[in-house]
Write a structure and sequence with these properties.
- The protein is mostly helical.
- The protein has one domain.
- 71% of the residues lie in helices and 3% in strands.
- Strands 1-2 form a two-stranded antiparallel ribbon. It has a two-stranded antiparallel ribbon with strand order 3-4.
- Strand 1 and strand 2 form a beta hairpin.
- The relative contact order is 0.14.
- The model has no long low-confidence stretch (mean pLDDT 86).
């Protein structure tokens, strides 16, 4: 028991390092993928000394294989199993070779449609369709359009962060959207829920869809407050070099490997403390999804033994917090990599918005119970 306590203390220290160092140390911020990879290796190595209820943790051939294959076999698009790296690389190549045509199409759209309308539909439509085309593809489409819009850098970052929250929300509605939803459906497929393809849509749609619409409105309000306009700004899509396209895919690969190691490494901490927390507390504790893979947390927390309100609170906490920091969600990782958004720039918008959404959804989920409304 004492050994497990020491392991959990060390894991907590690694967690704090993951949370704080990207904002405090410039070298860490500039090499976030490598830093998270090192932290993941450290966490998994520390976890090797933990034994909980007869279960051992740490390095196994299965975890190494998962880390190597997860970036290339992590989701399904149109029924075809593909991974983040393939999509990022293929879309990068398509954009590289079709740069002129894509820029012309975006320029035509900007000439005919007000920027505020484009932003509203960009956030809203991509949020909804991410449940079908996957969060990965939705994020790539998002950043290429945003990159080309005649907006200042801070405006682009703000819109991107808001849109990534929206995509993270919408992708959870079906098993096609992201690994979290696939895992949740799998874990709840038996008694008593018999979860099928539309289970999460029926469970969370009433919370998520209005949230996506609200985020679209927020994006428009944000631009108006920033004084958005096309005056003096070009609609220009910056063409990456072939080297940059390949390097970005490699960074995404390393990022996903790091998240696998971190998720597995923190399992003793999750199993010992987090899953024992009641619904209201679980909602807030899942704010750790801002720096950990929410699919790993979902795999540890979600199960048929949970009540409907526990499932709702756990999933909504994971989905909201996932947008707060770059490592929290796949769309964040893709968008930050393509637009070279730093951790400090992301947190400027992601943390205030995330906390506001946490407060709003906490009230929506739990206020009726406190007031005796059923």
């Amino acid at each position: 028991m004492e050994q497990l306590m020491i392991v959990n203390i060390l894991l907590f220290c690694i967690f704090i390092a993951v949370l704080l160092l990207p904002f405090k140390v410039k070298k860490v911020e500039e090499n976030l993928e490598a830093f998270l990879f090192v932290c993941g290796v450290a966490a998994l190595s520390v976890a090797s000394f933990a034994i909980l209820h007869g279960e051992t943790f740490g390095w196994t051939p299965a975890i190494v294989i998962e880390a190597l294959t997860a970036p290339i076999m992590i989701t399904t698009v149109a029924g075809i199993p593909v991974g983040i790296v393939q999509i990022v690389l293929i879309m990068g190549l398509i954009i590289y070779f079709g740069h002129t045509q894509i820029q012309a199409a975006i320029q035509t759209m900007v000439n005919r449609v007000p920027i505020s309308v484009i932003v509203f539909f960009l956030i809203g439509v991509l949020g909804i369709v991410s449940s079908v085309i996957s969060a990965i593809l939705a994020a790539i489409i998002l950043v290429e359009i945003v990159c080309a819009l005649p907006l200042g850098r801070q405006q682009k970052i703000g819109v991107t962060v808001i849109a990534c929250f929206s995509i993270g929300f919408g992708a959870a509605l079906t098993p096609l959207g992201e690994p979290l939803s696939t895992i949740a459906i799998s874990k709840l497929s038996g008694d008593p829920y018999h979860a099928g393809f539309m289970f999460l849509f029926e469970l969370l749609g009433m919370y998520i869809i209005p949230g996506i619409i609200a985020l679209g409105i927020l994006g428009v309000v944000f631009l108006q407050r920033q004084g958005a306009g096309t005056e003096g700004l070009e609609c220009k899509l910056i063409r990456e070099s072939m080297r940059e396209v390949v390097l970005r895919a490699g960074k995404v690969y390393l990022f996903i490997m790091a998240l696998v190691f971190l998720g597995e490494g923190f399992k003793p901490l999750i199993l010992e403390y987090i899953i024992q927390i009641p619904s209201e507390g679980l909602f807030w504790v899942n704010i750790i999804s801002a720096v950990l893979d929410n699919a790993t947390l979902a795999a540890a927390e979600i199960g048929p033994q949970l009540s409907i309100i526990q499932i709702k609170s756990a999933l909504m906490g994971l989905l909201i917090a996932g947008g707060m920091l770059i490592p929290g969600n796949i769309p964040n990782i893709i968008a930050a990599g393509r637009m070279e958004i730093t951790s400090r720039e992301w947190v400027r918008y992601g943390v205030p918005l995330g906390f506001a959404l946490m407060l709003i959804y906490f009230a929506i989920l739990f206020a009726p119970g406190y007031l005796g409304i059923h």
